[in-house]
Amino acid sequence: MLQEIRAGNQDGWQKLVDRFQGRLLAFARRQLPQTADADDVVQEAFLGFLQTLAKFRESSSLETWLFQILRRRVADFFRRRGGRGDVILCGELSAYSLSCDRPGAESKDHSASWHVRREEDRQDDYLALTTALLGEVEKLKRDERFEDLQVIDLLLFAQRRNRDVAELLDLSEKAVALKKHRFIEKLRDALPKSDRDAADSTADDLLTSLWADFRPSCPKRTTLGKFQLGTLATNWDEYVAFHIETLGCQFCSASLDDLAELASTVQAGESAPLRDRIMQSTVGFFRPD
Ligand SMILES: [Zn+2]
């Protein structure tokens, strides 16, 4: 699909839009109460995808990359409305999500330099750390060490405090701290030299940011489909239930919304209007000069 798009083949582009539009729209609708706004940011995200196609590293999945772009577009939307640009990734979307000026209690207010460091151009600086992080989480999943994964999910992704995590998972605070310490130690060598000796909170911020960008613990879409059908093995079924209900992952909740909608609206053509808009707004990328 990517090769077709890079070669300027519009059919390849249409296939990509068709494949990802539903889950992106479901995510945007969870963040933005007005359907028209959600359509707009999804359209902007697809446009942004084509504009940054040259920067796409195939080390991350297309879905991951598209969600990163969409998150930035949603944040821009909130900022244009005078808000702080916080996009809620974990936890229940409550009344806060209906207001553009969300209180910042759920997310840390990073410094300006932090935002500069996070520019996608600089992601290469953290390639070693990203690879190590994805590898460690993959090991936890493979060995079905779901309790460890839940602790890390809640601490790094949801930014919950040790005490809350202990309470939620019925563990001691000491056990939570130990699991976290072990996990971070495995990654320390992969931290860029400038961050290696920094305070733990710097490493935490870095890992939280990478977690939000690369979502290492998010189950695959096929796994989410099986979860919906109730055909997962018990261990996995329990983990996915935690991921959706306790962690409140908004990406996976959006994918589930989309899967449910796909299952219920078999009639083709329902999503055609937005698809047509996206195709029209991006036609310039495929027209020969
Ligand atoms: Zn997820």
How many structural domains are formed by the residues?
Answer: 2
Shape annotation: globular
> Radius of gyration, rounded?
19 Å
The CATH class of the largest domain turns out to be Mainly Alpha
The share of residues in extended strands comes to under 5%
The fourth-level CATH homologous superfamily of the largest domain is RNA polymerase sigma factor, region 2, helix turn helix motif
* Named CATH architecture of the largest domain: Orthogonal Bundle
Question: How does the SSE layout of this entry go?
Answer:
Blueprint: H1 2-6, H2 10-31, H3 35-51, H4 62-80, H5 112-117, H6 127-142, H7 146-157, H8 162-169, H9 173-187, H10 193-196, H11 200-214, H12 221-229, H13 234-246, H14 250-264, H15 272-281
Helix pairs in contact: 2-3, 2-4, 2-14, 3-4, 3-15, 7-8, 7-9, 8-9, 12-14
The chain binds zinc ion.
